[in-house]
Amino acid sequence: MDKRIKDALLGGIISNPVFVLVLGTCPTIAKSTDVINALGLGLATAFVLICSNVFISLLRKVIPSSVRLPAYIVIIATFVTLVQLFLARFLPSLDESIGAFIPLIVVNCIILGRAEAFASKNSVGLSFLDGVSMGLGFTLAIVLLGAIRQGLTALGLAYFASSAGGFLVFGLVMAAFNKVISVIKDVKFEKTLLKEGD
Amino acid sequence: MSFVQIITLVVAGVITDNVVLSQSLGICPFLGVSKKTDSAFGMGFAVTLVMLLSSIVCYLLYHYVLEPLSIEYLRTVAFILIIAVLVQILDIVLKKISPALYGSLGVFLALITTNCAVLGTANLVIDSGYNLIETMIEAVSVGLGFTLALLLMSTIRERIDSSENVPESFKGLPIALIVAALMAMAFSGFAGFSI
């Protein structure tokens, strides 16, 4: 497989937007109280991310670089408005629980970050893949936190439904993520040492 | 509106409904700019200023332009543009009239556009149906609450970063999040508190 395609596809895991880049923390903590909310917000964000990545990549030669940020924000806000209208019409119960955080997708730094760092420099196909990978990486992270918090809340620990519980679970999962990555790096390092020894 | 109502709004904005610790908004700058007390103070002040201005402009725009034309669905696009433009104007004006203040705030101004607490507050005052005076009080107290959380966090982090006892995988942000959890717990003690 082409290396760039592989990089774009694995980006969501290796440079996970939540645990590694630490972007989009506000919705992650606020709406990871249960799996359904987390999944809804994650997919809504992924949809906006994919659409804005594709659009910005298509327009990357048209938008003058001095006004690129306002232009990106308008493009992103347009897709967010689409999601808002869609949820209000077809999924009113989900709209009730995560509605306040949908407009805030506009200022989710993951989306503007990928627009600036990736879509403005790469082809449409790659930007689409990057959007899918990063969007799913975000969804995976927020659903994981949602599952942990919902499970602990269901055991009678109401603390984990509060924002304090959100901070705590997020911190612990991030530490675990760091640990796993450092273990993987150590193993790789030992392997190269062994190979050099041969 | 009475004095008691004003106090209620302020106490709720700064302490009981603290924007960072209980509403989970503005966490990116809360984690990113809380390493030093000086920069925490600068960021808090800049956010409060932008929050006040953008809430007023968004309030006027929503009630006098979007509502009469019944194009409320353009709210997200319009609000984020207003915030971006305001931040840009503030940047230019401050650079011109107060280079000293600009020197200490300049870096943070650009970051404020993507601070979700600002857009969140602009949306909140519209959804809660506040009038203009209530909007201004709410915006300032939410900004002060943000500054308070940022200052508390930065003083704690300055000490943690100089400590040797943090486990390797907790260094940096994970331990900051645990600290935030403890702070949020302390702040939730105010939850039942009302005037």
Short description:
The complex is a heterodimer of chains A (198) and B (195). Chain A has eight helices and no strands. With 198 residues, chain A is an all-alpha fold.
- Percent helix of chain A, as a range, is over 70%
Most extensive chain-chain interface: A-B, 42 and 44 residues
How much helicity do the residues of chain B have?
over 70%
- Amino-to-carboxy terminus distance of chain A: 30 Å
Give the overall shape of chain B.
Answer: globular
How large is the radius of gyration of chain A? 19 Å
Query: What is the string of SSEs of chain A from the N terminus onward?
Result: HHHHHHHH
Count the strands of chain A? 0
State mean pLDDT of chain B (0 to 100 scale). Answer: 84
Structural domain tally of chain A:
1
Derived structural class of chain B: mainly alpha
Q: Count of helical segments of chain A? A: 8
The description of the largest β-sheet of chain A is: none
Q: Runs of chain B with pLDDT <50, length 5+?
A: none
Q: What percentage of amino acids of chain A are in beta strands?
A: under 5%
Beta-strand segment tally of chain B: 0
Overall structural domain count of chain B: 1
Report on the biggest sheet of chain B: none
Fold topology:
The complex is a heterodimer of chains A (198) and B (195).
Chain A: H1 3-14, H2 25-30, H3 35-58, H4 68-90, H5 92-98, H6 109-119, H7 124-154, H8 163-197
Helix pairs in contact in A: 1-7, 3-4, 3-6, 3-7, 4-5, 4-6, 6-7
Chain B: H1 3-16, H2 27-32, H3 37-66, H4 75-97, H5 99-112, H6 116-127, H7 132-161, H8 173-188
Helix pairs in contact in B: 1-7, 3-4, 3-5, 3-6, 3-7, 4-5
